[in-house]
Amino acid sequence: MTVPKFASRKGGEPLVCLTAYTAHVARICDRHADLLLVGDSLGMVIHGMPNTLGVTLEHMIMHGQAVTRGAEKALVVVDMPFGSFEESPEAAFRNASRVVKETGCTAVKLEGGVEMAPTIRYLARRGIPVMAHIGLMPQAMNTAGGFRAVRDEAQWDAVIEDAKAVEQAGAFSIVVEGVAEPLADRITQAVAIPTIGIGASAKCDGQILVFEDMVGLFPRVPTFVKRYGAMEAMMDDAVSRYAADVRARAFPGEEHTYAARRGGDAG
Length: 267
Ligand code: KIV
Description:
This protein has eleven helices and eight strands.
């Protein structure tokens, strides 16, 4: 998948997007997804942080490297963490170019609307494709007073302006997170680049979910998550059966042990 091919899917078959943070998960998702996002949600999902604000560029680069090793077909996009792009377009370019060079990803994602348009323009004109992220922006949780979905109609016009601004700045796609369903539909109609919804609308040009939420491996289940698996229960069952076997000396069995080698045997 390339950026132009991804962008050309506007209004076509819905784009399938998932987060991935490790090579093995990337390999699995790559069989089915058009885009793999190394999201800064890895701070919470992998590193047990309370939010995404503590995630560093080094975290993103390390997980980005793992995901590009596992992905063959899908477009790999790496999130720019809080503090790595807001200061100036130049600082954003310095950090985003490091992400692209050191991970081999194709594009970066950054949170922000109108206020980030000059930065998106600066990156896109210098060879770094940008996926924008508007609506509920987790990195703005302290100014917003928490994770707040955009439901109030009085806020809708500003979000539509954000979508238009990031499109005009050269973003190739927009993640639309946590907005009222009709607003997501209006944003999708207002721009000519694909909108990728999370807590948004089935009318978006594609959808994204956090892999661990989708397979049932993360305890918190927000409204917008549909669980397609029950991995936590499966893993808990496997660990408890292993623990019971170890305690009963039922593991390892003979088939899991090495027979002694008689002196001089080869192989
Ligand atoms: O960090 C992330 O995983 C994201 C997606 C939820 C869109 O930004």
